[in-house]
Design brief:
Length: 536
């Protein structure tokens, strides 16, 4: 039996009902939303009714969400394929004791956070300097979670930044590091190399390039390097003093690591105080996730809406649409968080999944997206559930009129997706403009919006470190809940390994040291053409 059978039956029985019909109940908006602190999560503009919600909550209970949640926070090794605990939450919760393999991990976590704070203050106050003066710029070199998390959060909290300018390099494409370093002074630049193993090929290649760039003007380049790594032997071989090496355990996955030393660049930018507020916002969401009933629990509800849209209704993608320019990198961050976590094809026991796993996640900030891909969302042939995020208040008081226009656009888009525009309405609009006959009918059809397209809205007061922490934790827990319901492991990522292994094997083929025997014909032909072009 498919675990979604009862939901599929209910969806089939109500498939012809318009979402607008559900609003005949004046209380729908209140009854199909949930609040926590400054957050309001409105999912009333979906086709979920009381029966569907009851079935979804029952599904979460049946799949053991509460039990798995307790196991995660207690340090159980719920990442079964790697035999690891999942404890990114300890970096922000400061619990009295959390044990892994019988050892309390909290003293080490607190000590590392203390060292990070001391180093950040030294850099920000000028006690730690480059070989040409106070640090003016920080270059964080990482990839995946070692880049996306701090890059997203630093941009999101740019209005709080009063430290050195932070730059982020991730792509092994030499253009990325070349263009980033081009405008910087090696004598006043701090480079952070973020790689837990200190072997990630993209990161270490860029680190070597940065060291050569710095060595051209600085006598001791390694003195202006810090490392986020647990491989202290490799960081020492690179020349980085142990006092500037900040490690974390393997029970923190890369895409969940912004709370850990991976967030050092963010701490340098906004200061330890604001970084602590960022932690506090996430910790508050953690408590809500652990304590609120499932039917009133924001992460659980966000996950259940996702399950309804993807596994039940068959919508293969979802768009994340923050109406907040400083959250411009949030869709990319969530794309990795969700697709690397729940892009799996087998259940925990290794059996093929009998249903789809995670959706394709994508998006851009509003209002830019309205002039790009919203056409497809409104009038395309596929339904794309939308997740809007918007702050009631902007951070620029003298530009509040622009923020109100931004908010109006956000609410208008969700309303337009819901109600659409009928042929009769489109015809009447054009008739008033003077069109008649066959041309009136033809033009009117192009202006029909089918509507009945689902969306959710996450409303908050203002983007602050505390709020951002809550948003990220909300989505982390959403991924966890969806993974539990799907019966998959959200905390490994074997799908990234094969391509990396093959890339290493292809390097000698591209250089001509190997003839590529064993490679497919297309790969050999492409490699040969690349060699020919490079040699021409």
């Amino acid at each position: 039996m498919n675990r979604f059978d009862d939901l599929l039956s209910h969806a089939a029985a109500t498939k012809d009902r318009q979402i607008r019909e559900l609003f005949e109940n004046d209380k729908r908006a209140a009854e199909f939303s949930a609040e926590f602190g400054e957050f309001l999560f409105d999912y009333s503009k979906t086709s979920i009714d009381e029966t569907a919600r009851d079935l979804l909550v029952a599904l979460a209970e049946r799949c053991g969400v509460a039990e798995k949640r307790a196991a995660m926070f207690a340090g159980a090794k719920i990442n079964e394929t790697e035999n690891r605990a999942v404890l990114h939450t300890v970096w922000r919760n400061m619990a009295a004791e959390v044990s892994v393999d019988g050892r309390d991990v909290m003293p080490e976590v607190r000590a590392t956070l203390g060292r990070m704070q001391a180093f950040a203050e030294a850099v920000r106050t000028g006690r730690f300097t480059g070989q040409g003066g106070a640090i003016t710029d920080v270059v964080n070199i990482g990839i995946g979670g070692s880049d996306l998390g701090p890059a997203m959060a630093t941009l999101a909290l740019s209005s709080f930044a009063d430290g050195p300018r932070c730059h982020f390099v991730s792509n092994v494409d030499g253009a990325h590091i070349h263009d980033t370093l081009a405008g910087l002074n090696p004598e006043t630049t701090l480079v952070i190399v973020a790689s837990k193993t200190f072997t990630t090929i993209e990161t270490m290649t860029n680190a070597e390039t940065a060291r050569k760039w710095m060595a051209a003007k600085v006598a001791t380049p390694a003195a202006q390097f810090a490392a986020i790594s647990s491989a202290v032997d490799r960081t020492a071989a690179f020349g980085i003093d142990p006092s500037r090496v900040f490690g974390f355990e393997d029970w923190v996955g890369g895409r969940y690591s912004v709370w850990s030393p991976i967030g050092l660049s963010l701490m340098l930018a906004v200061g330890p105080g604001h970084f602590a507020e960022f932690h506090a916002g996430a910790a508050a969401m953690d408590r809500h996730f652990r304590e609120a009933p499932l039917a009133e629990n924001l992460p659980v509800l966000l996950a259940l809406v996702g399950i309804w849209h993807n596994q039940v209704q068959g919508h293969a993608t979802r768009a994340v649409l923050p109406y907040e320019q400083r959250l411009a990198r949030l869709p990319a961050y969530l794309q990795q968080l969700e697709m690397e976590s729940n892009g799996k094809r087998v259940s925990m026991d290794g059996a093929d999944l009998p249903y789809n796993s995670g959706p394709v996640v994508w998006g851009e900030p509003g209002t830019n997206g309205q002039h790009a891909f919203y056409q497809l969302i409104h009038q395309g042939t596929r339904v794309i559930p939308c997740e809007f995020l918007v702050a009631a208040t902007g951070r620029e008081p003298d530009l509040e009129h622009q923020h109100l226009l931004l908010v109006a656009n956000c609410l208008a888009q969700s309303e337009a997706l819901l109600r659409g525009r009928s042929l009769a309405e489109a015809t009447e609009i054009l008739r008033k403009k003077g069109l008649t006959g066959a041309e009136l009918e033809r033009q009117a059809r192009h202006r029909v919006f089918p509507g009945n397209r689902p969306s959710t809205t996450l409303l908050f007061n203002k983007l602050t470190p505390f709020t951002l922490g809550g948003i990220i934790a909300l989505y982390e827990h959403r991924v966890f809940v969806e993974g539990v319901i799907l019966g998959i492991n959200s905390f490994d990522q074997w799908g990234v390994e094969l391509g990396k292994e093959l890339a290493l094997a292809l390097a000698p083929v591209l250089s001509g040291e190997s003839d590529g025997a064993g490679k497919d014909g297309s790969t050999r032909a492409l490699a040969a053409r690349i060699r020919a072009l490079r040699e021409a």
